[in-house]
Structure formats: structure tokens, C-alpha cells
Amino acid sequence: MSASPRARIAVLISGRGSNMRALLDACNHGTLPAEISLVVSNRADAEGLQAAREAGIETACIAHADYPSREAFDAALVHRLQQVDPDLVALAGFMRILTPVFITPFAGRLLNIHPSLLPKYPGLHTHQRAIDAGDSEAGSTVHFVTPELDGGPPVLQARVPIRADDTADSLAQRVLEMEHAIYPLAALWFLQGRLTLDKQGALFDGQTIPANGLQYRPPSVTGDAAAGGLG
Ligand code: NHR
Ligand code: GAR
Fold it and tell me: How far is 39 from 10, CA to CA, in rounded Å?
């Protein structure tokens, strides 16, 4: 019996790439039985692009500024990704709004991690908006990507407290640590076929996922040995 080929993940980034790194680490540790086949950035100077190269991953820079329209940029992205035929496309700090030219060919295999408790605060500057609103908690949400910006169905969400002395940066750091736990977990579930998108929304093991997504419960110091689960 031959081993089944590993699932292929393509990651889209624009910057630091720490979520890409979390996915890569999970692949290397065997907790995510997959390989990152391609990392694409729309910015040549993205730190994550250099990190991916150093890790021996195939990379591409497709600069949005080189294209006359969003659709033309998206078509170039599709063309490049089709060369690796990914099972999953993960947006990880990717900062360009995508049109149906990109989303349609990858519908149902496209995830994003967004730094807010969706459906609260789609779009940009999420941490400052949560602080300004006086919220007591913030977090991050992995969701399926649809043409509506940050409007696709949530699948997995992690919460952190907002502290009185938080700045957008200190809050972003606390949220980011949770992102590094939930994105590899959501990717695992997707590649296992447990997470699916249908007309009704997102499903986990065939059951409708609540509007905020499944709630991640971090492994506790006092609790059982099981790594993070659902609360
Ligand atoms: N595209 C679609 N169609 N649907 C989504 O849900 C998407 C998407 C593209 C990116 C990530 C998202 C986030 O997690 C994402 C989700 C960029 C912007 C934005 O306003 C907003 C949300 C997200 C990503 N981008 C500006 C633009 O004009 C550029 C901003 C910049 O370059 O700094 O594309 O937050
Ligand atoms: C992450 O917090 C991610 O949720 C957010 O940017 C950060 C990227 O960090 N994404 C967006 O704001 C998308 N618009 P990373 O590059 O280190 O993964």
C-alpha cells in the first residue's frame, strides 16, 4: 500500500507571515498532514516571502500594482495557483480584496483568518475599533471566503480579554497568539473533510456551525492533557 499524497496548501500573504509560519510549523510537526506548496505575496518586500524561501517553499510575488484592474490581478493569482492545484487556499494577512474572478474557481476551499470576533468589525483596524467601542473582549475568526468582504461563514473563533491599558498593538499581539493555534486547527479539519461550505453556510461534521463559528477553548494548565478543543 502506498502512502496517500500529502494535501497541498497555498498561502496568500502581504506581510510578516506569522500565520503562514504557524501553518508550516504544524506541517513540519506532523499535526497538519499537508505541505505548503506555494506562498504568494502581492508585495515583493513581504517578510513572510523571505521566510518561506528560507524554508525551501516555492514562492511567487504577484504585485497588484502591476495590473490594470482587480480582476486582472485576480486572474494572474488564479493562473499561478492552478499550477500547484491546491486542496486549500489560506489567506494569512493578505491585504487585497478579491473579486469573484479569484473566488469562484476556489469556492469552498478558501479560508481567511480575520482579527476580530466576526460578524463584529469586518474590514480594517479591528483592534482599535474594539478598544474604542469599549468591548471587554476581542479575538480572531477563521472563515470561508466569499465575495462579501469578511462576510463568509465563520468556522472557528478564539476570544481574548481586552485589558484597560491595551493599545491596538498589545491587543493585536494577544490575538495573534490565538491565531497561531486556530488556523492550523481549522486547516486540519478542512483537509480531513470535516469542514465544508454549502448554500446554507459552513458545516462541521455535517452540522451547521453557529453564526460566530465554533468557539476555541485553549488547553488549560489545570485541565486534561488534550490539546485545545471546543468550548
Ligand atoms: N476578499 C473577499 N472577496 N472576501 C473576503 O472575505 C476577503 C477578501 C480579501 C481579503 C482578508 C481581510 C481581512 O481579514 C480578506 C478577506 C483587505 C482589506 C482591504 O480593505 C479588507 C479586509 C481584508 C483584507 N484592503 C484594501 C484593498 O483596497 C487595501 C488595504 C491595504 O493594502 O493596506 O484591497 O481583514
Ligand atoms: C493577522 O493578525 C491577521 O489576522 C491579520 O493580519 C495579521 C497578519 O499577521 N489579517 C488581516 O488584517 C487581513 N486583512 P501575519 O502576517 O503575521 O500572519
Answer: 6
